[in-house]
Amino acid sequence: MIAIERIEPGSFADEAGLCADDQLVTINAIPINDLIDYYRAMEAEHLVIEVFRLGEILVVECEKFADEEIGLEVAHPQPQQCGNQCLFCFVHQLPKGLRHSLYIKDEDYRFSYLYGSFITLTNVSEADLQRIVTDKLSPLYISVHATDPLIRNHLLGCQVPAILPLLTQLAAADIQLHCQIVLCPGINDGPVLQQTIEELATLSPQVNSIAVVPVGLTRFRERLPVLQVPNQAEAARCIGQIRDIQQQFLQKLGTRLVFAADEMYQLADMPLPAFDEYEEFPQLDNGVGLVAHFQAEAEEALLEAEPLDLKSAVVVTGQSFFFHLQEVVKRMGLRTGVDIEVVAVGNDFFGSSVSVAGLVTGIDLVRQLRDMIKGRPLLLPDVMLKADEQRFLDNMHIDELRCALGVAVVVVESSAWGLLEGLELLAGGPVDIVRCS
């Protein structure tokens, strides 16, 4: 059973008498144990819903379209916990006092299926594997790092089952897999990387993509293993190796299959691949092809941009995206007539090696913008905030930022369209400014 958290007023669920705190037992005789059961059961057009309330079972029926909602929200399950001790675990690199959810080490195949979270498969049971296969929970996102069992055990900090047999079992059931390799120089690069990619390729096309991303390290690594972010030469060698493999795979498999993250090209000081070289952008959310995708989308947004009744605005981003965003913003300023300044916020909180927008903290925004914003409205990419809480990583609420800066702050989708819509919103009328009491 899972609990109903909220009923939308006036919805079918409301009219049928369902209530918050009712426990969903079955839908169409299917036991509802988690979100996957719920979402799949809700695809039916005729629903017979059993709920448990105050010791009794109540039954309601509903006719709806397949994609129609009935107006209830169910409780989000707590994820299974990760028992690994990865050398590069981000949670281990966090100081105290940040947003509570950051300290949760999740390792749950359900979250991988529902949200694209990467998992190592180290805690899946036979029952879990059977459910994945039977219910066709595909695609899944797998942190491989290395196929060599000894090296993978070292990276994960514990003894775990070999990964290739697990992936082979899933691939045999036609479960689509997106894999990632967090590259740690001196551990899983060079010949180890070659072996990992080649062995994963034997499971193509079920292994749908492989991303190679540089290890991310904060300044909070006291008493943690010594690791290094790839330097320019190491990143360049990795990219050269991947390019050679891509050419082989294009001829053999009809796909490049393996892709380096944008950050790897930045570290190597090398130009990014062309848009078409990312094929279907299978790992966009993992930082693979973000710039190319943004630039292509920007061309469409710029065609729609028109003059706006807005004098100026400030847009913030992380240091790694600054140059690419600045190019687009300059053109958007010419199209809209708005004087837009792009500010690259340095990550003093986590350290200079952390340069992505999604890891910018509220305190760094306050410190670096307070003296230069000069009353101009601020456009803030949504990746800096936890959507359902409107809080930065350091637990600062968006209203605290508004208060500290004394300007209008608009949170926009992290895209060229989001930027344009934010400017249009500011031009359309006054936006509330939060004043400190």
Percent strand equals: 15-25%
Secondary structure: number of strands: 15
Query: How many domains comprise the coordinates?
Result: 3
Overall mean pLDDT stands at 95
Alpha-carbon distance between the two ends:
46 Å
CATH topology of the largest domain: pyruvate-formate lyase- activating enzyme
Q: What general form does the structure show?
A: globular
CATH homologous superfamily heading of the largest domain = pyruvate-formate lyase- activating enzyme
> pLDDT below 50 for ≥5 consecutive residues: which ranges?
none
- How would you name the oligomeric state of the polypeptide chains in this document? single chain
Report the radius of gyration as a whole number of Å.
24 Å
CATH class of the largest domain: Alpha Beta
N to C succession of SSEs: EHEEHEEEHEHEHHEHEHEHHEHEHEHEH
